[in-house]
Amino acid sequence: MKTPVSIREVATLAKVSVGTVSNVLNRPDVVAPATRERVQAAIAELGFVRNESARQLRSGTARAIGLVVLDVANPFFTDMARGVEEAATEAGHAVILCNTDESAAKEARHLELLAEQRVHGVLITPADASLDGVRKLRERGVSVVLLDHHAALPDSCSVAVDDRTGGELAVNHLLAEGHDEIVMVNGASRLEQARQRYAGAQDALRKAGRAPDVLQLLEVPAFTVAGGLRAGEQLLARANRPSAVFCGNDLLALGVLQVMVRAGVRVPDDMAIVGYDDIDFAAAAAVPLTSVRQPRQQIGRTAARLVIAETQAPEEHEHQHIVFTPELVIRESSRRTHKPRRARKVGSRTTA
Amino acid sequence: MKTPVSIREVATLAKVSVGTVSNVLNRPDVVAPATRERVQAAIAELGFVRNESARQLRSGTARAIGLVVLDVANPFFTDMARGVEEAATEAGHAVILCNTDESAAKEARHLELLAEQRVHGVLITPADASLDGVRKLRERGVSVVLLDHHAALPDSCSVAVDDRTGGELAVNHLLAEGHDEIVMVNGASRLEQARQRYAGAQDALRKAGRAPDVLQLLEVPAFTVAGGLRAGEQLLARANRPSAVFCGNDLLALGVLQVMVRAGVRVPDDMAIVGYDDIDFAAAAAVPLTSVRQPRQQIGRTAARLVIAETQAPEEHEHQHIVFTPELVIRESSRRTHKPRRARKVGSRTTA
DNA sequence: TTGTGGCGATAAATCGTTTCAATCGAGTTG
DNA sequence: CAACTCGATTGAAACGATTTATCGCCACAA
Known about the structure:
Two copies of one chain form a homodimer.
Chain A: H1 7-14, H2 18-26, H3 33-46, H4 52-59, E1 64-69, H5 75-90, E2 94-99, H6 104-116, E3 121-124, H7 132-139, E4 143-147, E5 157-161, H8 163-176, E6 182-186, H9 192-207, E7 215-219, H10 225-237, E8 244-247, H11 250-263, E9 272-277, H12 280-284, E10 290-293, H13 296-312, E11 321-324, E12 327-329, H14 344-349
Parallel strand pairs in A: 1-2, 1-3, 3-4, 4-5, 5-11, 6-7, 6-8, 8-9, 9-10
Antiparallel strand pairs in A: 10-12
Helix pairs in contact in A: 1-2, 1-3, 5-13, 8-9, 10-11
The structure holds a DNA duplex.
């Protein structure tokens, strides 16, 4: 209604052809300085803004990438999103964020929408284990990078963290601290991450020559604080509580921790807790949480760069499967206080 | 490269004109059942996906809305984003999420990009107090809804929470609990929210007939956990610590809380803490945080609906300024333990 | 038989940009 | 002075969908 000013009006005002205006916009070097300035003046005067739709209609693909995550409310994913956004902005791309809440149906809907938008590429943490939607996208020629999910598709890149090793690290640590009755609180085993982390935990047992029943599995419906609270209540109700709990992610761990603290269960002395992801809130918890750190932003940044690179040179692009190595960050929630008489204050002051 | 199948190929296969295919897509009722089915079969067979760019080139506006927030890592904003996403998906729109990190420069860049995308509308929590970028968008005819920011623009809608009242509620509560030396830890006063909440806090004093110096201000650069940690350290270093702290948001409060707990300062007995936003992590903190609750998802949902409504019927749309009323949620972090001998367990079990 | 309507389908114009072959003008060279 | 080069600019053809006027057809009425 106001003034949808087009390239043509700019051309008229600057007394050049539309082709020249387009050149000023896209390859300023090929146009003579004098004309260039004249055109730029006209653009400024009319307040012209390039119409992306038209541009991408011609070029066939958009200057946007889709990011599909399991849960936007999980700081792990927002941190990752930050990395994605950073890299995307760098390349002049917009990010379309989609949230699936671990639901395959929602995922399918979002992918449909992204396909219609002709996005440059899609970064996705799959909720649908079958990867059907992702495969369909690939067939349509959309680049896909699987996030936090190991290479299940040969014709796509993936960026992941070695979840199996992560699980192993966590349980190794607990075993080393002397625990021999460990419960793993985990999200839906439908999700790759959940499975891998559990497998890693089992690896640790095997390698240490311990019986498999040292580790029990407690599965909750979703990787959320609410899930952790529920798990905590259940553990509390048990006759023989485990001396250590390994949680599939930090939200679960925070939930469990909260229940224990409220009930007067001392952490870590009565129960050690280890989380996964090392979100900022983990370190900030009242009993700082031991956690398996993943390079959150870096995952996002790397994935975004991969997908952008792929679409810029599709032919010579070789699909990569990048795997970061997780790192165990030990904090109070799992540290055995062997010397209970040691001055507390000194310890707390050394915090970096 | 694969098969960018267009409406034309569908038409050929179904032996109809492109116009008819378009009709099947957009007003299936005007086309005869037999042809309709034939076309739909062709669409399915070819795996046709409508090209949004082409569609919006014609219609002039996109099926996407922009959401510009101060900090994606803040659960308050992700919860809000969830609401936005929900309402947008409902209306078949995509959400383009932009993060400004409270920087006016980043905000300007994002708005430029959104303008190029010809988004349906923009929901924004402004980082730039001058609102220049927003105004420019309006001039270009893009609908804008200001989020969490009071009506500064007469020609836009806004959805906000009465921050001033919120601040008042918080400090009222602290006064009622008998505190007479309160520090407000706040983010940059450049931000509207920060100013309003502080003003509300001062209101509380005035109305209670207390001296203004009962409340001191401690400003940190950003509304983050890191900011809270810094503030906490500063408070700890003071000779005379305040008996209560009111934080401009929950991230700050969690930071302060963490420092206090580590240092052995008992919360709330030695220092009461009140936050703002009531993010989920507030309730889940080891000392559950008293906080001023805002209807996070509802803000987002309402705003998205407003902007969609505006663009669907621009002429008859009346700009609205919706203000939600905040609510104080009292938890342990500020509750005076008047009767220390009371059984703790009973209290904790009543938690909903 | 002619006229009138209504329904379904069509063809063509259109949206704003990019791209590419063609053109133009001014030098440069033989 | 003609032939050529080269850089700068132009004009028109795409891109893929929507939309509008139009057309063909059939039924029914006059």
